[in-house]
Design goal:
Pfam families: Peptidase_M2. GO terms for molecular function: metallopeptidase activity; peptidyl-dipeptidase activity. This is Peptidase M2 family protein. The protein is mostly helical. The protein contains 24 helices and seven strands. Among the domains are: about 150 residues, no CATH class; about 200 residues, no CATH class. About 55% of the residues lie in helices and about 5% in strands. Strands 1-5-6 form a three-stranded mixed sheet. It has a two-stranded antiparallel sheet with strand order 2-3. A two-stranded parallel ribbon has the order 4-7. A hairpin with a 2-residue loop joins β2 and β3. The chain is globular, with a radius of gyration of 24 Å. The two termini are about 25 Å apart.
Length: about 625
């Protein structure tokens, strides 16, 4: 998975999200002003709440479009002035969202219609990084978040006299097999983040104060309140889901470690214990598919085709890859993307300026001004990423008739799962149907395909979980600033079974080397999306009566699945997420068992290969 994050205006309308925040009029809760400018008087009534919500939604809709345009420019033209504008709109956004959240609290406990009560909860709970009422502190928070984002986006490290950015350093990690070269690139990128640590600690201090003013114990409780269940229950739900898939991850880890040991030898990668993080083909060791040639099953290394090579041989460019993704959705009955999508998206990396390359999907006006922003390369990974990002756009379009506060995913994991569910249908049968391959490889090649896929989908799961577990500990004060890095590696070893290639410096702030930490994008959504995408896939394949192996099923061209899928997406956030899940899958509980079913052939192979090995770490 590339660093994928969602930046639709409606998604970010309630706080300092990863990309887009709403702008406001600068009033704060301390001003005592309602959204329509009238001072509150007496006990609130249902009509008061209705008037408040109508005005709040209108204000948020106007100002989130303004903020969306500012943030689009800042993300696609990074310089002093656009950073200044982003900081300014961030401050206004924070003050607006905090003011509305504070005013919404006035109606807590009032017997409201269900729809209105849900909107009040969304206003109170939806802020990502809340500032206290003090306008000066809100300005400080906006400056910090902009500075963190910019520091990450412009980070470089010099190797052999050449200044390398993240993309170039990542290429070394992805392609080199020299352990010393890998270590230098891995450690080099992490020289960018130590300067972030004081800012990050101050940001946490401010945001926790903001959460307190909104009635939450800390920012962790606030983030966890967004899942239609108490925070403690959601934490338990996450651990339950991890428990369902952990046995498959442990077998994959055991197998990969043994293969790396054979390739590098005991001095670089011992046969037991954790895996050295820089050997796994990804800057964050979050997905491992780049080392597939090192760990491919003996005799089954060839999955039957090389999609990257095919795309390049056919002369594909970035736009054509996006057009293929649009065609998939069209085949399921969805309307074509608007012409403005093609006019306004950033699909390739400009050569004349700095941009935020992390792939993202946007809906600037919360209606139909949908765009993607990504520095697309012609390869198999970006072929799938395009489908993922378009999934966000089609979801945004599906719910654009909802009231403004409901223009969002059922929960944040739904938004991430939509596109990846479609990408699971990029099967050999699908590639043959669209003319990219001539023949479907025999079932003998499935083991290699499944292993390659597991290096992304299964290897990611513990990483997707631990990012926010670290942040919850930070937000709750359980992890002090001086222990940020130690706690980070404790979790990475506990859940992923990995360690750094060498001792880390005393001032290291390795969490900051992952975009979503300085970018303040909640990460649990990605873990949940990986659970949901397989659950969606299994349900869709049952709809079409598929009887073969789950990993061979494709829903390309099936308008019945498209109609059911759209019915779920149209609900937006208007109903609790179990209702949306049930609309498509027929079940009301997230379930990791579909992952186990999908990778069943691989699990048997891994258990056979690992017999006699000491698994775990």
């Amino acid at each position: 998975m590339k660093q994928i994050w969602l930046c639709g205006a409606a998604i970010a309308a309630l706080g300092l999200a990863a990309c887009e925040q709403p702008a406001g009029n600068g009033e704060t809760p301390g001003d005592g002003a309602m959204a329509n400018g009238a001072a509150p008087a007496g006990e609130p009534t249902v009509e008061d709440a209705r008037a408040f919500l109508e005005n709040a939604e209108a204000e948020l809709a106007r100002m989130s479009e303004y903020a969306g345009r500012v943030y689009w420019v800042q993300n696609t033209y990074i310089n002093y002035d656009t950073n200044w504008l982003a900081s300014r709109v961030g401050s206004e956004s924070t003050q607006l969202s905090v003011r509305l959240a504070g005013e919404a609290a006035r109606f807590e406990g009032l017997d409201l219609p269900t729809e209105m009560s849900r909107k009040i909860d969304i206003l109170r709970q939806g802020i990502t990084i809340p500032a206290p009422a003090d306008a000066l502190i809100a300005d400080e928070l906006a400056e910090i978040t902009t500075r963190l984002d910019s520091t990450y986006a412009t980070g470089t490290y010099v190797i052999d006299g050449e200044e390398l950015d993240l993309g170039e350093l990542s290429t070394i990690i992805e392609t080199s097999r020299d352990p010393e070269e890998l270590r230098e690139a891995w450690e080099g990128w992490r020289t960018v983040s130590p300067v972030m640590a004081p800012d990050y600690a101050r940001m946490v201090e401010i945001a926790n104060a903001g959460a307190n003013e909104l009635g939450f114990a800390n920012l962790a409780e606030m983030w966890l309140s967004n899942y239609d269940m108490p925070p403690s229950e959601m934490e338990a739900e996450v651990e339950r889901l991890w428990g369902q898939v952990e046995p498959l991850y442990e077998q994959l880890h055991c197998y990969v470690r043994a293969e790396l040991h054979e390739h590098y030898g005991d001095e670089v990668q011992p046969a037991t214990g954790p895996i050295r993080a820089d050997l796994l083909g990804n800057m964050w060791a979050q997905q491992w598919s780049n080392i597939y040639p090192l760990v491919a099953p003996e005799g089954d290394a060839d999955p039957g085709y090389d999609l990257t090579a095919i795309l390049n041989e056919r002369g594909y460019d970035a736009r054509q890859m996006v057009e293929v993704g649009e065609d998939f959705f069209s085949s399921m009955g969805f309307s074509p993307l608007p012409e403005t999508f093609w006019e306004r998206s950033l699909i390739t990396q400009p050569e004349d300026r700095d941009v935020v390359c992390h792939a993202s999907a946007w809906n600037i006006d919360n209606v139909d001004d949908v765009r993607i922003k990504m520095c697309t390369e012609v390869n198999a990974e970006d072929f799938q990423t395009v489908h993922h990002e378009l999934g966000h756009n089609y979801y945004q379009r599906a719910y654009n008739q909802q009231d403004f506060l409901f223009r969002n995913g059922a929960h944040d994991g739904f938004h991430e799962a939509i596109g990846d569910f479609i990408a699971l249908s990029i099967t050999p049968e699908y590639l043959r149907e669209i003319g990219l391959i001539d023949e479907v490889p025999s079932a003998d090649a499935d083991l290699g395909l499944l292993l390659n896929q597991s290096l992304d989908k299964i290897a990611f799961l513990p990483f997707g979980l631990l990012i926010d577990k670290w942040r919850w500990g930070v937000f709750r004060g359980e992890i002090a600033p001086e222990n940020y890095n130690e706690a980070w590696w404790d979790l990475r070893t506990q859940y992923q079974g990995i360690v750094p290639p060498g001792e880390r410096p005393a001032d290291a702030f390795d969490p900051g080397a992952k975009y979503h930490i300085p970018g303040n994008t909640p990460y649990l959504r990605y873990f949940l999306s990986f659970i949901l995408q397989f659950q969606f896939h299994e349900a869709a394949c049952e709809m079409i009566g598929w009887e073969g192996p789950l990993h061979r099923c494709s829903v390309y061209g099936n308008e019945e699945v498209g109609a059911r899928f759209n019915a779920m997406m149209e609900m937006g956030q208007s109903q609790p997420w179990p209702d949306a899940l049930e609309a498509f899958t027929g079940t009301r509980q997230m379930d990791g068992s579909a992952i186990i079913a999908y990778f069943e052939p691989l699990m048997g192979y891994l258990e056979e290969q690992n017999e006699g090995r000491t698994c775990g770490w």
